[in-house]
Every structure is written in structure tokens, then in C-alpha cells.
Amino acid sequence: MRDPAFHLTPYPDSMDNIRTLVILGASGDLTARLLLPGLGSLLALQPEREITVIGSAREDFPGPLGPDDDVRAETWEETVAKAFSSVDATGPAVDHARENTRWVSCDVTEAADLEKLLGGVVGPVCLYFALAPAITKRACAALAELDALPEDLYLALEKPVGTDLHSARALNAQVGELVDEEHTFRVDHFLGMPGVLDIVGLRFANRLFEPIWDRRHIQSIEIVFDETLALEGRGEFYDTTGAARDMLQSHLLQVMALTMMDPPSRFDAVEVPANTAHILRATRLWDEESATHAAEHPGITPVVRGRYTAGTVGGQDVPDYAAEKDVDPQRETETFVQAILEVDTWRWNGVPVTLRSGKAIGDPAQHIRVTFRRPPHEYKGWPHPTAPNVLSVGFEEEHVQLDANVGSPFDSRGMNRLTLSSRVPEPGLTAYGSVMRWILDGDPTFTVRADASEEGWRIIDLIQDAYDTCAPLREYPAGSQGPVVK
Ligand SMILES: O=P(O)(O)OC[C@H]1O[C@@H](O)[C@H](O)[C@@H](O)[C@@H]1O
């Protein structure tokens, strides 16, 4: 069981604690739906934290913020209050943040506007870019024009960092001109998901798993995040992105790296990112033509992609993807992708790792599943081969399950299957709450280092190259389990 006091530990008394959080693009959906509730969930657990939040977006922003700055300020204060109460956040830190928040209209692509925004802010300060990659790039260029940057400046970048390897490299170089890597957070909220953090606890706080966490004992790994959600009005973004870039590029590859990394010598922002980057560097597409692979794991199709057609999910009609708003059907954007990868190291060589994510899936699985090899010796006279042990951890549901064999091996019906299963208590922090905690502590241990974000794009390129050669777009009805592959 999780120690319930865990999340109540006071934040470290360090000079790195952020005093001012500036959210750029604060009128958008991400801020109201995820960032502010995440912040609220954190502040409710850390009553001593004092933080000033500045919301900022362009003056001509057409959204709900209203025509003049007074209206914008008022709407912003209401947005903050509503987001905090959506997670029942109360207490002195929540009150302090509400009372001290303010709104500054600013075009982040204009140096003069940024000067106005940042003048007089109290450091350490973090600029959170809740913006599309192209605007983030222009905002970084504008920041570089300023005579001086605030002292103790941190930058937090939402995914996607760039739109391909080339643009990610360019953006990382630009960010590197402004602040050190230790002052950069490439946010991936999947690293804050309770189930993902449970993998860290399971692996490194127990004697049981780590000695068998390698190719000699593990048969395969599956990291799956299917969703019932379809496009949800995000056609413009999604149609030029697709499932591989949206879900595998950072999220599932990062989770894979954390699940498979060598044990770090310290849990800090030097060791953890070094070990996860090591895994990503060694990752390649599964080679189904290798003789050893074909013998041990026959019939693997390394890449499968699909796109949903009209159907029903949870009783709701979902239109054909091609008929969704802001979508160009000729683009062949995939809403489902499955890629089998291999991490080519001594520890992992020959173990197939399945990453999968699909939209409009009827019965969605969301888990990290490790299937162990069978026992090394089959006994004569035992009527059935023993089933493998399986460890499964739910992403958001916080469900940890271990399947084992028990009972009499001589029973003609086969052995009994014992399922050790537990629901881990609610942690109190949302995934974005953990992200906020790391940012406000100035601790980038669980963010994506520049080289890791670039390796992610390299791997996506491998997957997308396979689209053209051996993974035709398959259709699947919304509400099904995705394309059927023979
Ligand atoms: O379940 P969560 O936390 O919303 O995460 C899943 C989402 O993660 C986002 O990063 C993707 O852009 C979405 O397409 C996806 O639905």
C-alpha cells in the first residue's frame, strides 16, 4: 500500500523552488482542463507553498476571455477559481495562489511584449509554453532578443517538442541558447500517471522483480493505451499528427524507457534521464526476418496502422474519421498504431516490446504488461504446460495484478491460476499535479531530456517508414478493438 503521507511531505527547502509560474497561451483548453487543476491538486497537499501564477495570451485572442484587459483579468481569476474547485482544492496555498494571480495580455512572439510581461517578476520563474510548437519556436526567438532574461529562469515545453526530428533538434538548440538543460522541462504528463510511477516503485523498492527484469526471464512487454475518445473536435491538430506522433513519440516511448531502464544509482535529474535515454538510443524496429527472432517469436508484424470508420462507442455514434471536421481523408492519418520494437542491449535483446494506441476503441486496454518466460524445466507426468507469470499495471486505474500458478500440478484440469491483485489508493495528485510538483520544485528528473526527445522522433521515423513499405492503412469500425491482423 502506498504510504498516504507520501504526497504530504513538505516541498524541499531549496533555492530552486519556483516562485512565479507564467503560463503562455493561458486562454487555451490545456490550461483550464489540466494545468490549473493539476496545480490546485498540488497546492492542496502543500499548504506552505507560495506561488504567483500569471496567465497570459494575445490581446486579440478570440476565445472566451473577452474584449478588454479588465474582462480578461476577471475571466482569468474565475478560470483559476473554477479549476481549483474542480479538484476540491482548498487551504492556505490555494488561497494564496488565487489571491495573487494576475493576467497580462502579451503576444509572445514580440520581444517588446515579453519585456513587459517579465519585467518585475520574482524569480525563480518558470515560463510554461502551453502553445503549439511553431509558436513556441517564435516565442523562443523573441526571448533571445531581450537584453536580459530573468534570473533563475526555467522553461517548460508541452509536447510535441517539434513536429519531426529536424524541427525538434532546431527547437532544442534554440532552447539551449536560452537556459541550461537542467532548467528545461519537456513535459510528458504520462510520467506523472500513477500507474507509471507505480512501475518505478515496483521495480526499485522490492527485492522481487529487479533480479529477473531482463531477457533471460522476460518473454515480452506490452505498453498499451487505447481510448474510447475519437477526435473530440481536435481535427486540425490531429490530422497532421496521427497516433504515432501523438501517443508513441513521447508518451509510450517514455514509459517504455522508464520500464526498461537500468537501475539508476541515484534518483535524480542526472541519472534517470541518462538511463532512459540509453534505452531509447538502443531501440529499433523488430526485425521479423532475423532467424533467431522468427524461431522464438514467429508471426510478428512489426507495424500495423489503422483508421476508424463510422461506428458506436459506449452507445454514442461516432462518424467516419474521413467525415470529421478539419480532416483531409487523402492524408491517410492513422488513428491506431501498433509497433513492435526491440531494445538492442545485453539486457533486452530479443524481447519484443509492443507499443499500441488507438482512438475510438470499444473496450480500451490501458496497461503496462510484462509476460515472463515459462519455468525452465517442464516436469514429466504433469498434464499441462504451466502458463507464464504476468505482471500488469494499469496506467490511470492504478491496478496492479500478478498472475501465478498454484495448486496440484497433477490435477487433470491443469493448475489453478492465482491472481494477486490490488487497487492502489488514490494518490491525491493528478498526472499534471505531479508535473506541476516537479516544475515548482525545479526538479527535471521526470521530464524528457533533449536527446531523448530527439531519439523519440528517430524511432517514429522508423515506424513511419514502415507505413510506406509494409503497413497499409487498415480500416476498423469505431467501437471495435482496432484492425484485425492475420
Ligand atoms: O488520458 P489523458 O491523460 O487525457 O491522456 C491521453 C491524451 O494524451 C494527449 O497527449 C494526446 O494528445 C491525446 O490524444 C490523448 O487523448
UniProtKB/TrEMBL annotation:
<keyword id="KW-0119">Carbohydrate metabolism</keyword>
<dbReference type="GO" id="GO:0050661">
    <property type="term" value="F:NADP binding"/>
</dbReference>
<dbReference type="InterPro" id="IPR001282">
    <property type="entry name" value="G6P_DH"/>
</dbReference>
<dbReference type="InterPro" id="IPR022674">
    <property type="entry name" value="G6P_DH_NAD-bd"/>
</dbReference>
<dbReference type="InterPro" id="IPR022675">
    <property type="entry name" value="G6P_DH_C"/>
</dbReference>
<protein>
    <submittedName>
        <fullName>Glucose-6-phosphate 1-dehydrogenase</fullName>
    </submittedName>
</protein>
<keyword id="KW-0560">Oxidoreductase</keyword>
<dbReference type="InterPro" id="IPR036291">
    <property type="entry name" value="NAD(P)-bd_dom_sf"/>
</dbReference>
<comment type="pathway">
    <text>Carbohydrate degradation; pentose phosphate pathway; D-ribulose 5-phosphate from D-glucose 6-phosphate (oxidative stage): step 1/3.</text>
</comment>
<dbReference type="GO" id="GO:0004345">
    <property type="term" value="F:glucose-6-phosphate dehydrogenase activity"/>
</dbReference>
<keyword id="KW-0313">Glucose metabolism</keyword>
<dbReference type="Pfam" id="PF00479">
    <property type="entry name" value="G6PD_N"/>
</dbReference>
<dbReference type="Pfam" id="PF02781">
    <property type="entry name" value="G6PD_C"/>
</dbReference>
<dbReference type="GO" id="GO:0006006">
    <property type="term" value="P:glucose metabolic process"/>
</dbReference>
<dbReference type="GO" id="GO:0009051">
    <property type="term" value="P:pentose-phosphate shunt, oxidative branch"/>
</dbReference>
<keyword id="KW-0521">NADP</keyword>
<dbReference type="GO" id="GO:0005829">
    <property type="term" value="C:cytosol"/>
</dbReference>
<feature type="domain" description="Glucose-6-phosphate dehydrogenase NAD-binding">
    <location>
        <begin position="22"/>
        <end position="193"/>
    </location>
</feature>
<feature type="domain" description="Glucose-6-phosphate dehydrogenase C-terminal">
    <location>
        <begin position="202"/>
        <end position="484"/>
    </location>
</feature>
